[in-house]
From TrEMBL:
Pfam families: LacI (PF00356), Peripla_BP_3 (PF13377). It comes from Micromonospora rosaria. Keywords: DNA-binding, Transcription, Transcription regulation. This is LacI family transcriptional regulator. InterPro entries: HTH_LacI, LacI/GalR-like_sensor, Lambda_DNA-bd_dom_sf, Peripla_BP_I.
Length: 341
C-alpha cells in the first residue's frame, strides 16, 4: 500500500476553486456581504463545510493586521492550579502586548474542545493555549483541526502533536519525598489526587520512584479528590496507624484537611507526623503549623506558553524554544521535621 499523502489545512483559494467562484466572492460570503446571490452563497458554504475550512485571523487578519488576541481553552473550576495557570497566561500575554479571550468548558472532551476552538477561531484569535490537566482533555487535543497554532499546558510530556509546557510534577513529588526521607522517616504515605488528572498521576509516579530508589517500603496510595474534606477524612483514618510518621499530600488543600484531622486527635505536627503539600497556595505559610510544600511557578508556565505560541506565529521579538518543563521548588516550613524517636 502506498504512503498516505500529508493533508494540509484548506485555504480560501481551495474553497473558491471547489465552489467555482473568485477569492473575493468567498470573502464576501464569509463576511455576510449582501451582494452575493443566494445560490452562490449556498455553493460557497457547502464548499466550506466539505473542506472543513476555518476562516480566522491567520487567513484574514483583522483589516489586514495580525490579531493581538490569544484564545485560551480552560474548564470551569476554582481549583488553585488551573486558576493560577490561567492568571499566569493572562499576565504573560499582557506583557507581550496581547489580550486573551477565554472559553470555559464544563467537560474537556473532544466535542467540547472542537467547539471551543471553533468559537475562538471565528473570533479571529492569533492562536490558542489549551489548559488540559486531565487525561480526557489531553486525549481530546489529538486530532484537533490543523492550521490553528496552539500550545498545550499539561503534564505527561506533551501530546506529541502540539508544543506543551508544564511543571515537572515527577520532580516535585521526588523533592517532597526525599526531603522527608532525609529527616529520618522510614517511608512516606501519599494522599493522591483524582486518578484522571495527569498531575496526580505524575505525582504518584514521583513519590513511588523516590521510595523505590531509596529502597524503602511503598505504602498503598490513598486516593483523594483535591479537597480539604478528602484530606480531613483520610487524616481520620491514618491517625490510628502507628507506622504513619510522614505524609505527602498531592495538593495543599488536602494537606489543610489532614492537618485539621491530626490536630483534632491530638497528633502533633511535625513532632508525631510530618506533612508536606504541593502547590504553595497563598495560605500555606499561614496554616498552623506553616506548611512545607512544593511551589509551582505558574507565572513562568504562562510566560513559556505565550513565548511558544508567539514562536509558532513568527511574531517579532519571539525567542527560540525554551525547556518544556518548569522546575518546581521545595519550600520548607514548620510542618515537616525529624522522625520521632
Amino acid at each position: 500500500m502506498g504512503q498516505q499523502p500529508v493533508v494540509r489545512a484548506a485555504v480560501m483559494s481551495d474553497v473558491a476553486r471547489l465552489a467555482g467562484v473568485s477569492h473575493q466572492t468567498v470573502s464576501r460570503v464569509l463576511n455576510n456581504h449582501p451582494s452575493v446571490r443566494p445560490e452562490t452563497r449556498e455553493r460557497v458554504l457547502r464548499a466550506v463545510h466539505q473542506l472543513n475550512y476555518r476562516p480566522n485571523a491567520l487567513a484574514r487578519g483583522l483589516a489586514g493586521r495580525r490579531s493581538r488576541v490569544i484564545g485560551v481553552v480552560s474548564f470551569d473550576t476554582i481549583l488553585y492550579g488551573p486558576a493560577a495557570t490561567l492568571l499566569g497566561i493572562e499576565r504573560a500575554a499582557r506583557a507581550a502586548g496581547y489580550g486573551i479571550n477565554i472559553v470555559t468548558l464544563e467537560r474537556l472532551d473532544r466535542a467540547g474542545m472542537k467547539s471551543a476552538i471553533d468559537a475562538l477561531t471565528e473570533q479571529s484569535v492569533a492562536g490558542v493555549v489549551i489548559i488540559a490537566p486531565m487525561m480526557t482533555a489531553a486525549l481530546a487535543v489529538h486530532g484537533l483541526p490543523t492550521g490553528v497554532p496552539a500550545v498545550v499546558v499539561e503534564s505527561g510530556g506533551g501530546t506529541g502533536e502540539l508544543p506543551s509546557v508544564s511543571v515537572d510534577q515527577v520532580a516535585g513529588a521526588r523533592l517532597a519525598v526525599e526531603h522527608l526521607l532525609a529527616l529520618g522517616h522510614e517511608t512516606v504515605w501519599h494522599v493522591a489526587g483524582p486518578r484522571d488528572w495527569l498531575e496526580a498521576r505524575d505525582r504518584v509516579d514521583g513519590w513511588r520512584l523516590a521510595l523505590e530508589q531509596a529502597g524503602r517500603r511503598v505504602p498503598a496510595v490513598v486516593p483523594g479528590d483535591w479537597s480539604p474534606r478528602a484530606g480531613y477524612e483520610i487524616g481520620q483514618s491514618l491517625v490510628d496507624r502507628p507506622d504513619v510518621t510522614a505524609v505527602f499530600c498531592a495538593n495543599d488543600h488536602q494537606a489543610l484537611g489532614l492537618l485539621r484531622a491530626l490536630h483534632q486527635r491530638g497528633v502533633r505536627v511535625p513532632e508525631d507526623v510530618s506533612v508536606v503539600g504541593f502547590d504553595d497556595i497563598p495560605e500555606a505559610e499561614y496554616l498552623s503549623p506553616p506548611l512545607t510544600t512544593v511551589r509551582q511557578d505558574f507565572d513562568e508556565v504562562g510566560r513559556r506558553c505565550v513565548a511558544a505560541l508567539l514562536a509558532l506565529l513568527g511574531a517579532a521579538g519571539s525567542t527560540g524554544p525554551e525547556p518544556a518543563q518548569v522546575e518546581p521548588v521545595l519550600v520548607v516550613r514548620d510542618s515537616s521535621g525529624p522522625r520521632r524517636s
